[in-house]
MINDY deubiquitinase domain-containing protein
Amino acid sequence: MDDTFQYKSRDGRLVDFDVSRDSCEKYGFFAGSRVMTPKGPGTVIGVFEGNLWFHIEGDDGATFWDNGKDYESLVFKLNVQLIDDEPIGPTENKYRVKRINYLKRDVSIILQNENGPCPLISIANVLLLSQKIYLDADIQFVTIKKLGDLIMKQAKILYKDNQDILDILEDYSKNVLPSLEKGLIVNIYFDSIQGFEKTEPCQIFDYLNIKLVHGWIVDPQQKEVKQLIGHLNYNDLAPKIVTFDQSFPNAKPELQQKINDFANSNQLTDYGLSLIQENLKEDELCVFFRNNHFATMTKHDGYLHILVSDVGYERENNIIWDRIMSKEGESIFLSGDFRSRKDELIIEVVNTLKLFGFKDNEVDEAKSYIQTIDKMDVDLVDEATKYLQSRGYTI
């Protein structure tokens, strides 16, 4: 496809639209895509004069929304949505593949649907992100069998000189791996972030040298709680909670409340979260378990991040990582380069101001100013330019 496309606007002009992927990417929609807009279904035409233009069914030509300057405005303010010709989600045991940019590398990840085999998908995503296994860039779907084959091939590479382990892996591949397609039941120990009962299905993480971690850890500052249940695992604790008085006959009511609070903490504590953060190396990938769900996790810039692999975010090119801010669920969506949408907008503003001819120190001042702006529906270039002019700076 050429980078320009001549098309009639609604007022009758012939306009040369920029239809390149680079120009359309900031809007999250690309030329030729079918979308639902506030005025009904339409087609994305391209970019002209800083706006993404659409041809709405029934109109005489293309038009745009002047308050739809970026992806957030189009999606969250105007509710523009992609119209899919094919359903998003697994088809005949196939799973969607998404191409992302991760640490300046283009890689594929597997997307998770509501009932998909998240242990295998999270493992596969660790291996894909670390480039231990690969999928061709043009692959849009992958079967769970293909994933299993790639995972076991990598395990066998690690033990190519150990025939005893290779024999075990061969048996695991035939008799155990298929069960992971339906999920994986684990038993957590409350004294270690890697405290899991070593069942045969769980051994896949050891075979692949992938850390499986959780954050359901007793805080040592709660000494009485740690003394009573810190050494237990989930299967030990569950029946004791039901028969608390018989299991802990000398426990005071306030201690019972603390133990109940721990048992009902959604399988994550602040102390457990801090332990994961301390023990993971920078940009180390692992699998994080919580509430019967397995997710791909990494630490970057000192923060913990969960890979956003839900199939509902397939079209969200700027939502790749979910930075964990607290155990209560506070988080921030980030791009593959771990930048927020505002971070990316600020980079665009800085580059634009430099193109305008402002000096580096002036650009730095403007950058500091726009970082204080919380609203996402304003033109940050315009705001930065006005600020610099108010300071007496001219081009």
